[in-house]
Amino acid sequence: MKKFIRKSFISLLSILFFFVISFISIKLVNIEFANLNIKYARIHSLLLTINPLIMLLWLLIGPIYAEIIFGISLILIFLIAIGLKTSCFLLHVLILTINIIILNYFYNKYIEKKNKAKLKLEDLEEQKNTILNQYNKQNEMSKAFNKKKYRYSMLKNFIEVLSSTLDINELSEHIIEKTLNLIEKSNMCILYGIDEVKLELSLLSSKSDKGKIHIKEKQGDIFDQWVFRHRQPINIYDINKDFRFSAKDIENVKRDFKSIISVPLITENRIVGTLRLDSKNAGVYTSDDLRLLDIIADLSATAIENALLYNRTEQLAIKDDLTELFVRRYFYQSLNKQFSIASRYNKEITVLLIDIDHFKQYNDTYGHTAGDIVLKEVAKILIEETGPNGVVARFGGEEFIILLSDLYKPSAIKKAENIRKRIQDYSIILRRKKTGITISIGVANYPNDTNLKNELINQADINLYKAKTAGRNKVCYS
User: Fold this and answer.
1) Are residues 172 and 152 in the same domain?
2) In terms of Cα–Cα distance, which of 257, 289, 261, 266 is closest to 276?
3) Alpha-carbon distance 313 to 89, whole Å?
4) Are 163 and 154 in contact (CB under 8 A)?
5) Residues 220 and 151 in one domain
6) Best label site of 63, 109, 292, 357, fewest CB within 10 Å?
7) How far is CA 243 from CA 224, 229, 234, 240, 247, in A?
8) Are 81 and 117 in a shared domain?
């Protein structure tokens, strides 16, 4: 609309100018025009309409077509002047030429202003895009900062949680849960420790985004083994496209996932486990996620090392150095606890007091080193036969004691017989000589034999004495 108004204004100025020039020119050649006949006057009038026509064309279809008409008009005027043999019509050439020059001048000025306006608009658009890009960049930086701030806050909380416990199982649960919270895009988090005897990975804890899950790979899969062997972090975009693992290896993977980040837990140049996250989607994890997981792993490695050290110290305090059985103090603590449970819920507990028959002869015949071997072998069998529901302790020199909880007396007596028979059938090589061992066992049960906690061990000791006086290698009970 503005363009049309501007063109119209220029055209009106040009028409006004045309009429002024026409009036002046007619006055100057008034004498010649006065002598023209009517036919010449009509041609003169017709030519006068060419100029406004050109300006109208310039307004409607642009200067190019108007200039074409202008050229045709000049030729026509020259032909008329030559044909009529009069020069009065040549005045129209001057008028048309001046008019078209004025039109082009104003048009060029208009184009120049338009180009300047366009350049200014482009500059403003460029400034706008620059400001918008800066805004987007600042917005992204702000989001990244807030995300890092949130993660550092979570890390601070994570450190506090790690320092709140020295129990390895509870600690493992905390590590898994906090890791999933810090890197929320994961479907699974798995924490492996190291079996110090077998020197292989051992599952500590695992959790999915939907809760607890059972992991069959207790020693880890090919990805965990890779991190364990190389002691390096790994970030896999898509397990089916990673050059480090063959298609045959991938086929053996039992769980459904696509991308992985996993890091070793290293403290003092010693690996204590691996921490892993995986997702069902490919290309989930970034380098920032891997760096964050590496920080979590460093903190976790120290916490796990402290927990393991505490556990070893605790084990030294409650276990016998030679047989690795619990000491008498720990046995009494367990007895107090189980007796309270049994009396409250009407359950039974049984004590087996065990003595190695003729143990002094082993020491006298083969030496104290051989006697230590006998104690270790007997302790090993007692642990295997008792199982996880019992407490096995070294009670004295060659005496052992077993606490069986939530087991009826007939079943406890049967277990005592199984222990006695297994040791009887067991052979030990002492100084290249095959030697047999036998034991005597005294059994006491709550509440069948006594209702008093302190009398339970005394009753077992009485029955053990009966077994020894009856010829040894026996199980006696009330």
Assistant:
1) no
2) 261
3) 124
4) no
5) no
6) 109
7) 16, 17, 13, 9, 9
8) yes
Tokens of 445: 């049960």
Pairing mode, strands 188-195 and 270-279: antiparallel
CATH number reported for the structural domain that contains residue 349 in this entry: 3.30.70.270
Distance CA 348, CA 148 (A): 56
Pair 2, 142 in one domain: yes
Question: Is the pTM above the cut of 0.70?
Answer: no
Question: Based on the domain organization, do 157 and 172 belong to the same domain?
Answer: no
DSSP of 288-348: HHHHHHHHHHHHHHHHHHHHHHHHHHHHHHHB-TTT-PBPHHHHHHHHHHHHHHHHHHT--
What percent of the chain has pLDDT above 90?
Answer: 32
User: Residue 35 pLDDT > 50, yes or no?
Assistant: no
Q: Looking at the structure, do residues 83 and 100 belong to the same domain, yes or no?
A: yes
Could you list the residue range(s) of the whole structural domain that residue 428 is in? Answer: 328-477
Span 134-148, pLDDT tens digits: 888 888 888 877 777
Give the pairing type, strands 475-477 and 439-446.
parallel
- Total domain count, the chain: 3
Q: What is the mean pLDDT of residues 51-69?
A: 64
Q: Is the pLDDT of residue 112 over 70?
A: yes
